[in-house]
Amino acid sequence: MTERDDQIQETSITDVFASFEGDVPASGRRSSPARLVRRYLPAVFAFVAVLLVWEGLTRLFGVESFVLSKPSEILNSFSETLGVIWGAGMRTLFEAAGGFVIGTSLAVLTSLAAAHWVGFRQGVLPLAIVLNATPIAALAPIFNNWFGLTNPFSKMAVVAVVVYFPVMINTTRGLLEVDPAELELMRSLAASPSEVTRRIRIPRALPYFFSSLKVASVLSLIAAIISEYFGGPQDVLGQYIVNRAQLFQFPDAWAAILVASILGVVFYLLILAAERWLMPWHVSFRTND
Amino acid sequence: MSAPVVEARGIGKVFGTGDAETEALRGIDLEIAGGDFVSLIGPSGCGKSTLLRLIGDLVSPTSGTLVVNGKEPGQARLDRDYGIVFQSATLLDWRSVQKNVELPLEIMGFPDAERPTRAREMLDLVQLGGFADHHPWQLSGGMQQRVAIARALAFRPALLLMDEPFGALDEMTREAMQQEVLRVWGETGTSVVFVTHSIPEAVFLSTRVVVMSARPGQISDEIVVDLPPKRDLDTREAPRYFELVIEVREALRHGESGSRES
């Protein structure tokens, strides 16, 4: 089976963002400020409401900070330690982005090979699906040993492996799931296999590729932080969170998690922007005029 | 009459093997002269589309000999001797209308400077000159099919193969498209093989209607359409047109009962 859980997970993530963007008339693309406010107001409202309820409940029931810190404490810590946690965030982002680029590049090369050679596909894809079921973060201690605890590449390697599988499996699927009529058209034009890949398969695979990149962007930060938990330099998000938690400085740990989630969202939005830029023709971006 | 563009002798086609074997075509003899407009008509399962795809070398015959434009079908395909239009327009969403028409030209290595000129000429031919920069999804079904025709003719093939190209269109659009195809045919001089299951469509368009019967697919009759070459709304109301429609209908009925007896 090539159906993957990631696909389902991915859909739900995209749907969340689609709900930010959807149901907007064509003219809304060239958004007026009033439209923007109307579009994002519900989301902003929900976000603020969650924070207020969180703050209110933790105050009302006198929840201790080590159980669940109050948003006010977290924001306070965030502004006080911003210099430190932002620097840590950047180093973690470097590992995540490095691993993301390596993993994605290798995945795309594998996919192109799999689309081109049937034998390769039949041999490698089942293996990839089996390997994909392995909890890859568990490799972190081994990679620390291989590449050196302080070498950022040991973290990048974990990220690269985590990113590799969803991107490879989805992209391969996209390259292969082409309308038979389009293949027939290309055959009638006596197009070579490389022409078919360039002019049909790659454009057709782009939506699959970007779906997987959206999953991968989030996974890459998770993988980087988790592999940092297994040791290495202290000035990164994962180690900072572990250290502050051990010192019972939970608002600090939460503030670092906030940085991680901001980076995750920014990374995700960058992919979304690239997707729009590269495939404006896609059905999800179409305007009615 | 000029040299034939299609010559089929004793063509048979069997799909599958063993128990799953289906005989799609048997003993097909067909000759199509240059400049002809030939319709293949018959009940579903009579192999008319298969016959078209054999001519296009999209499938290979099991038996018999087939010559397309004086050569083997495979060679004719490699030489781009034909353009094809399918039932669905099969336009590429990520390309503009003009770029869709340029697709065959790109694959065939036409020079960069020539492609846009050619594509625009073709779009003018199908009267879509103003839509070059649109994207396929912005066009109606009939317009999309006209783009597909422009694409199929962009490299000026000797033969145009059309596989139920208007099957998905409504009646009004369909009649407009038929007029359009006749005009294009008149202007380009291309030979056309046209698969359809519509009797009026076959009669209105063709110089010759090839009637097929099913299980296995065979040619049961051929009817020469002796209507004047210039066809328009009046043609659709001419007595001779109705006679020919009835003649094709009779031939289809006859073919059907014939195959039931066998």
Q: What are its keywords?
A:
heterodimer; A: about 290 residues; mainly alpha; about 0% strand; disordered N terminus; B: about 260 residues; alpha/beta; six-stranded mixed sheet; three-stranded antiparallel sheet; about 35% helix
H-E string of chain B: EEEHEHEHHHEHEHEEH
What would the principal axes of the Cα set say about the shape of chain B?
globular
The parts of chain B where pLDDT drops under 50 for at least 5 residues are: none
- The N- and C-terminal alpha carbons of chain A lie at a distance of 40 Å
- Unreliable spans of chain A: 1-29
The portion of residues forming beta strands of chain B comes to 15-25%
Helix content of chain A: over 70%
Largest interface: A-B, 20 and 22 residues
From the helix content, strand content and strand pairing of chain B, which structural class follows?
A: alpha/beta
Summed over residues and divided by their number, the pLDDT of chain A gives a mean of: 85
Order of helices and strands of chain A: HHHHHHHHHHH
Q: Give the total of beta strands of chain A.
A: 0
What is the 3D shape of chain A? globular
Task: State the major sheet of chain B.
Answer: 6 strands, mixed
Tell me the structural class of chain A. Answer: mainly alpha
Which percent band covers the strand fraction of chain A? under 5%
Number of helical segments of chain B?
8
Oligomeric state of the chains present here: heterodimer
Average pLDDT level of chain B? 90
